[in-house]
## 1
Amino acid sequence: MTTEPLDLLVLGSGVAGLSAAVRAAEIHGMRVGVLTKGELHQATTRWAQGGVAAVLHDDPDSTDLHLADTLAAGAGLCDADAVRVLVDEGPGRVHELIALGAMFDRDEHGRLALAREGGHSVPRVVHAGGAATGAEIERALVDAVHRTAAVLHENTFALELLVDDGRCVGIEALAPDGGRYQLRANNVLLATGGAGQLFAVTTNPLEATGDGIAMALRAGVAVADIEFVQFHPTALHHPSMPRPLLSEALRGHGALLRDANGERFVDELLPRDEVTRAETTRMLEQGVDHLWLDATGLENFELRFPTIAADLRAAGLDPARDWLPIAPAAHYLCGGVITDLDGASSLGGLWAAGEVACSGVHGANRLASNSLLEGMVFAFRVVEAIEQGKVEAEATGAMRAVLDGDGSPGVIRGRPVDEPSFDVDGGDATEVFEPAGLTRLRDRLQRRMTELAGVIRTGSSLQAAMKEATAAAGAVSRRAGSPAAAELRNLARLAHAMSFAALVREESRGAHTRQDFPERDDQRFRSRLVLRPPVSQAGAA
C-alpha cells in the first residue's frame, strides 16, 4: 500500500495519541493518521480510574505545591523542568478537554469536585463518574478523532519503525487480513502506552504489551528508567484479568488497609511504591497472597464510585459490609523512550508521549493521577513543535541524559549503558505459531517476570529473568505472522531490557526494590540509566 506521506502518524489510541491527533488535525490542519492494534476505544486510558491531577482551584493549592509533591514521589530522579511544564500547562489542557465535551464530577455549587490521593498534600484530582475518569476522557477524544482524522487504521499492528538516512519515515504494519504494508509519514508519534502484560497480575488490558518501546529499542532509540515499574497497591484479588482496580480515591476518602489479622500496617496516603512495598513485606511475613481494603466506613459508595461498585457486585462483594481482598498488581511503567520537553526522541521524525515516553516527569515513581495529565500536556507540545518546524531533539528535560555527552549527571557512569546483544532471530518456531503454543509461552514469561523481576528483586533473580526473556524471544522469529506472535516478541524484548536495567541499578529507589541492595544510593545512582542498543536491520526503510 503506497500513499502520500501523512503529516503525522499517531500510533496508539489513548489520551496522548488522541489528544495529539485532534489538535494536529483540528487546530493546525495537518493530515493525520491514527493506527491502533485494536479499536479506538481499546486503550489503557479507559481503565484509568483515579482521575487527573491539576491545580484548577485557588489556594491552598498551587502549581509549586503540585511540583513539590511530584518531585517527592519521584525519589530524586524527576527532571524539575519537565515537572514544571506538567504542572504549569496541565490546567489549560484539562479545560480544553472539558471544552471537547468531557464531563467531570462537580459539587453542589457547580465547581469541579476535587479528591486527594496518595502522595498529594491537598485535594487536586478531578474525576468523572467517581472512578470512570479514563472512560470519559476516552469517549470525548474518540468522538473528536472520528470527526477530524484523515485516516484511521484500526485492528492494525505496527511491526517496525521505518528508518531512512537516520530519520523515522513511517512504519511497517500488519493488516487485519495478515498482509504487510508500509505507511509513510513525515512524523511518527509513539503513544502506544505501557507494558503491564509483562506480569502475571496487572491492571492493564491485554493490549499493553510494550510494543512502542520494543520497536524503539530495535531501531536503536534511547530508552531510560524502565527498571521503575509501578505496582498499584489496591487491585482487587480476583481471577479476572486485567485485575479490577480499587482506585486511590477510596483511600483518599478514608478506606483503610488491613493485614491478615485485621490490623492497619501503613499510612494509606503514602506514595504508591511505599504502600506496595509495605503490602508485599506483610504478605511475605504472614504467608498470604492478599490483604484487605476496608471501605465499610465510606458513605454513599454507590453514588461516589459507581464503576467500582459494579465491579464489586460482579465479584459478589458488598463494600458496605465486606472487607475487599486486594494485592499489588503491575500498573504503570515510569520510563520509556527518552524525549526532550517537546516530546522529540533521539531519532529524528520520531516523537513519544504518554506512558511509552520517558519525559522526566515521573522519575523513580509516578505520583497518583499524573499519568493522564502527562499524556495531554506533552501530546500538545509535540504537535506545537511539529507545527513550528522542529526536526530534532534538544538537550532539555530527560534528553539531557543523551545529548549532554560524557560527564552528564543524568547518565549512569557518565555515558549510555549498552544493553547486551539480544538476538530474536533464534531458529524456527513454527510450532508456537499456533495460538495455544503462543499463549503458553506468554503465560510462562509473565509468571517468571512476576517471580523474578516484580515488586522485590535480586541480582540473581534478574539474571534468571533475562534468560527467560531470551528463551521466549528465541522461540518466536521476527518474521512471525500474527499479532499474538509479534506481541510476544515485543514482551520478550522489553522483559530483557527491563531486567538488565534493574540489574545495573544496584540500589533501591522509588518503584525499584533490590533485596540485595536495600538502601538508596544517591552518590552512584541519582542519575538516569540510558539504554541505547545497536540498531537492528528490521527497521530499515
## 2
Amino acid sequence: RMDGDIPRTDGGTGRADGSTEDVALDPWGSASVGDYADLFAEFGIESFDDVVDDVPAPHYLMRRGVIFGHREYDAVAEAMANDEPFAALSGFMPTGDPHIGHKLVFDELIWHQQQGGDVFGLIADLEAHAARGMSWDEIDEHARSYLLSLLALGFDPEDGELYRQSENRAVQDLGFELGAKANFSEFEAIYGFDGETNVSHMQSVVTQTADILYPQLVDEPKPTVIPVGPDQDPHVRLTRDLATRVRYFKVTEAFASFELDDDERQLVRTAYDALAAGSDGSGGDGSDDVRSADAAEWLADYEPPAGEAGDALRAAKPSAVETLRAGGKEPLRPRVRFLDRNATDEAFEALIEAVDGEKRVFEGHVDAFELSRAEAASLAREVELAHDGFGFRQPSSIYHRFMTGLTGGKMSSSIPASHISLLDDPEDGYDKVTSATTGGRETAAKQRELGGEADECPVYELYAYLLANDDDGLAAEVYTECVNGERLCGGCKEQAATMMQEFLADHQEKRAEAEAVLEDLDIDLDSDRRGTGGEH
C-alpha cells in the first residue's frame, strides 16, 4: 500500500483467505494478531498515523507503517521537538539467539538515542528464568549475544544504560513498592494467571513494571516510550495503572462538591458549557448561576454523538443525571481537584500551602479555582518529589507489526527456516531468503498480468522492515514493480538474499568489534546464581 511516495506495509493484517484471528495479547504465548485495527478498539491503542507528523525526522519504520500504534507518544514527540528530556526503554528475554524480528526493537532504541533521549536496554533474565525455566548458564550466553548485537547496530553505552534485571537493585526495590499496589485478581484478568502459575512468574511481571518506570527513577520523571510488539501491551497497561496508583495526588477536573468519573465529567462539562453560554434558551451568559439541577434537566434531553465514544457517554448519562439532581441548587463552577491518594500529612499540608489563589480545603482533597489542569499536575508532581514521592508520569509506548515468517505464517524461533538469526552464517541467510515463500502468482505470465501481492509477501517485508534501511526509494521501487507485474519473484529474492548476506556479514564483523566494548561494561555475564527456574 502506497502513501505518497512511501510504501506502507500491511503485512500480517489478515489471513490470505480473508478471515481474521481473535485478538490475543500474551507476552509469553505465540504472538498473533489477526487484524491490527482490532487493537485500536479493543485495547485503546491509538493509530500511529495520528502522531507521526509531529515526530521530527521520523524513523523509516514509522514512515512505512511498520510502527502502527502508540499510547501517548505525542508527549515524547513534543519533548523531542522541544529539546526537552525524554527516555526510551525496552527489554529482551534471553531465551535464544537474537533474530531479525528483535532488530526492530534494537533499531527503535538506537534511533531514540540518536534523537537525544536517555535510552535503556535491559536483559529480562528474571523473566526468562521464572517464565521459561531457562538455566542461568543459558541466560548468560544469550544475554551476551543480545547485547553484542545491540552494540553492533549502534547503541552507545556511554550515552545510555544496559543492565540485567537480576543485578539492578533499584529496579527490584521499585518492583516491591509497585507490587503493593497490584493484586492477584488483576493478574488473572490481564494475564490469565491461575492457581498453577508460579509465584516467581508473577514477581517477574512486577519487576517488568519497575523496569518500565526505571528511567524516571534514574533522573527525574519525564516522557518515556517503550518500543515493543503488541503482545507486550499488557505490561504497558499494568504499568500505566501502577504509575498513577503510587502517586501522592490525583488531579482531576471538578464542578462541585461531588465526584464524577471521566465519562460523567465529560457530560457535565458539556452541560455546563451549554448553560453558561446561554444555549438553554435564556439568551444570555449564565456562567455565574449554573445550578446542578438545571444541568441535570439539560443533560436528560442531551443525545451523545454516534460512535464508540458516544456509546460510553450514553452509558454514563443516567448516573451523571442522578448525581446532578442530587446536587440540587449547588452551583456548578469549574475547578481542578487534588485528591489525596498516598500523600503523607506533610506533603498534603505542603500542597495546600503551594496552591495560589482561591482554593477550598477538604479532608481528602483540595479544590483550586485559578489553576489549569496542566499547572495543577505540575504542582502536584513538584510537591510529591519534594516529599520523597516518585512523581511518575504514565509511560508511553509504540507498537510494531510482527514480521511474517519466511515460510509463511508466524515467525517462530522454534522453526529455523521461518526466521533469520543475527548469528546465522551469511550463506545460510542467503539460502533462507531464496527459499522463502512469496506473494507471487502461480506463473511468471500471471505475475506480469496481475502483479504480485507485496502486502502478503514475506520477502517484501524484508525490504520494508530491514534491507531497504532508510532508503524509501528502494522500498517504493520493489513494491511498485511487484504490484505492477514488472518484478518477478526469482530476481526479487536473489536481490534480497544478496543484501541479507551482506547485512549478516557486516553485522557479525561489528559484533566481533563490540566484544571489547562489552568487556569494558559493568555487566556480569558469568552469573553465579543457582536455581532451576519455573515454567510457563
## 3
Amino acid sequence: MKRTATVLFFIIVWNHYFLLAQPSTNIQLNQAGFYTHAPKIAVITGAGQSGIFYLLSANKKDTLYKGMLSASENSAYSSTTTRIADFSAFSTAGSYILFVQDAGYSYPFSLRGNIHHALSRASLKSYYYQRMSIPILPQYAGQWARPGGHPDKEVLIHPSAVSDKRPAYAVISSPGGWYDAGDYNKYIVNSGISMGTLLSAYEDFPFYFDTLQTNIPETGNGLPDIINEILYNLRWMLTMQDPNDGGVYHKCTNAAFDKMIMPADCHNTRYVVQKSTAAALDFAAVTAQASRILFKFKKQLPGLSDSCLHAAKYAWQWAKENPAVLYDQNAMNALYQPAITTGAYGDRNVTDEWFWAACELLAATKKEDYVQDIQHYQPAMAALPSWSNVAMLGSYTLLRYQNELPAYKQLPLPAIRQQVLGFAGSLIGNGGNRAFRTIMGQSKRDFIWGSNAVAMNQGIALINAYLLTKDKRYMNAALTNADYILGRNATGFCFVTGMGSRSPMHIHHRLSIADGIAEPIPGLLAGGPNPGMQDKCTYAFTAPETAYTDTDCSYASNETAINWNAPLVYVSGALEALQYEAGFSMR
C-alpha cells in the first residue's frame, strides 16, 4: 500500500512538471517573434495571483529579463480576462521563452531583424500551390506536388453569357489562374481585389519584392517572383474578356462545387457565366494597374503593358454602355440552365468599382477623361476594402501618384488624402482592443466572414497613412495586427498554415483535405473568428472573438481565399521593407 502511494505521488508530481513544461495556451503572442527594437507584447489569460513574468533563454536555464504584469482587463467580445506582459525594453537578438507562474511557458519565439521575412515568402508562395491547369512540381512544392487539373482549354459559353459571335455552348479557352478559395473555380470580382492588392504591394515596395524569391518555376527569369505570380492569374483574366465587345465574364466555373477530391480527378463541365458591370470594372482596374507596372518590364514582356491598357479601356467602354448589369445568380438561374450554384460574388452597388477603375485608368493614362468619373463616384467616406467595396484601392493609387498626376482642377486629392488619414486615425484614436493591445478587434464589426482579412486590410490602411505622414504610430499599430494574426488573439492560434507553433491543421480547402497529407498547404491565411457560423459546424466557443474552429467543415471560419492572402502578402512585405525606416530592427 505504501509503495502504491509512493508511485502515485511520483506520477502526480511528474504529471505536474510535465504539464508545466509544455507550452501554455494561456500565453498569446506573435509565435514568429519580434523585431529587436519594436514593441514586444504578450497577453496572459488565466493567470493567477502572481504579477511577475520572466523572459528565459530558449533552454530555460537563464532568466534574462523580468517585469510586472498589467492589471486585469476584461475583453469586450468574449469572457476572456487578460493581463499584459510588456518586454519592449529588452532588445537583444536571440531565441526565448516567456514564463508566468500559474500560466506556464510560452511557445518559443525569436527577437531579430527580418522576423516576418519567412511569412512574406510563404504567403506569396501560397499562390503557386493554388495554380490550376498545370502540374505542381516536386522541386517547387515538395510533398504538396500534384498533377494538374481543370485545364480549361474547352470552356462552354453559358446561356447567360451569349453574344452574337459567341452563342450558347460555344467553346472558348480560359486556362490558368488561381483557385479562388477552398473551391476550384475562378471569379473575376474576387481576382480584382486580390490582384489589386498584390500589384499595390509591388508598386509601394519594389525594392523589397524585387529580391524576394519563392522557388517557383519562373524564379530567376529576370522578373520578380511577385510579378511572375501575378502574371499567372493576369493571363487568365485576359481570356475572360470577350474580344468582340470588351465585356468580361463574371466567372469561370462548374455548375456546382466539386467534391472534396483532387483537381486531376475533377471532370465536370466548365462554363464562363454572364458578363457583369462589376466584372468589367474590376478587370479594367486590374489591367490598367498592371499596364503601369509591366511597362517597367517591357523588355522581358514585350507588348504586354500595351495589351493590358487596351483591355482596360475596352472593358471601361463596355461598362459605360452597360452601366447596371448586376450579377444576380438566383434571377439568372430562373432564366437559364444549367443552374449555377458556385460562389456568386454578387454586388448590388458598383459605384466603388467605377471609382477604382477610373482612378487606375487616370494613373495609367494621365488623361483628363477619367477625372469627372472620379469626382462623381468618390465615396462620401473611406471604408475598409473588401471584394464588394474596392473604392479605397483607388484612393491609395491616387495618393501614390499624387505628385505625378496633372493638376486637374476637379481632381479631389486633398479630400481623398483626408479620408484615408481620417480612417487610419479612427483606427488608432481610441487605442484599439485594449485587452489584446491590437487594432484588430476594437469593434464587434471586425469579426465577420474573413475577419483575418479585416486585420490585414486595416494594416494596409495604417501603412498607407505612414507612407503619407511618416508618423510611426501608424506603423506600430499595423504591427499589432501582424501580432494578432500570428498568435496574439483570443483563440491562441497563429492563423497562417505552417507558421508558428500552433497553426490550423484542418482548413476548409479542397487541396489540403484531399491530398492525404497531414499538414495543409503552407502560407494560407485562415478566415478567422466569425460569430455568424454560417456553416453550422460545432464551435467550442461562440463569442465574436473566439468563434473559430480548426475543422475542415468550417468554411465560415477556417476556409482560405486569395483575397485574404493578398493583404497578408502586402502587410508582411511592408513590415520587412520598412523595418529599418520605422525603427523595427537593429541598425
